[in-house]
Structure of Tumor necrosis factor-inducible gene 6 protein:
Amino acid sequence: MIALIFFSALLWDKAQAWGFKDGVLHNSIWLERAAGVYHRESRSGKYQLTYAEAKAVCEYEGGHLATYQQLEAARKIGFHVCAAGWMAKGRVGYPIVKAGANCGFGKTGIVDYGIRLNRSERWDAYCYNPNGKECGGVFTDSKHVFKSPGYPNEYENDQICYWHIRVNYGQLIHLQFLEFDVEDDTACMADFLEIYDSYDDINGFVGRFCGDELPDDIISTGNVMTLKFLTDASVTAGGFQIRYTTMDTPSKSSDGKNTTSQGKTNFLSGKFGIM
Ligand SMILES: [Ca+2]
């Protein structure tokens, strides 16, 4: 019976791994990592990249535009994005795993727009980078201190880290920033740390942080949280140390200012708002 409940919980998690973010349907981050293929859009939003720009975006991050075959291989293990992007050789398309009325014409597979004669058309990009340096992990301890890779040395370029925290059901996660120094950028697009009040990087976006200002404490609304740290191809900084501790769910009568959902204070102090 217990095993059954546990299994159901796993399935539920799997279902939760799908969701909309910035108007784009994303799949689980785990699958996205496994494939080495990822979706990129312009800093100014969806469908803004010419072929040359899309190529440059991937190369800037140490990869290259994904081939049709690479995108299809990623799709086969669950990579699903509802946004057309440039692939190698000027091809445009997007990977659909789950058929839906709103995306992919109700079919699964690569929705293929073919090789575009006009390379000035603007789409997103699908990059392939099997050498992206991965880091992070899953933590279930009652407390832990996360450090950016290499800390106390500076972190490296091209880093993609996911830390997932899962504590006992009924407990909350209290994040405290001990040190914080991440390449500063007006919209935190170069290097950034994102915090999610959920077990993926889709739901419960709390904030995106960069610079050297110490963010305020954040308290989760449930027993799971995700931290995502991305760095681009140039300029590094000191990095960070973040401690989490667990706390019991406060009783309804105690309405602590800092214990409300989404950590409002922190959201406001984040340099990058929800789009
Ligand atoms: Ca950087």
User: Anything to note?
Assistant: The chain has a mean pLDDT of 79.
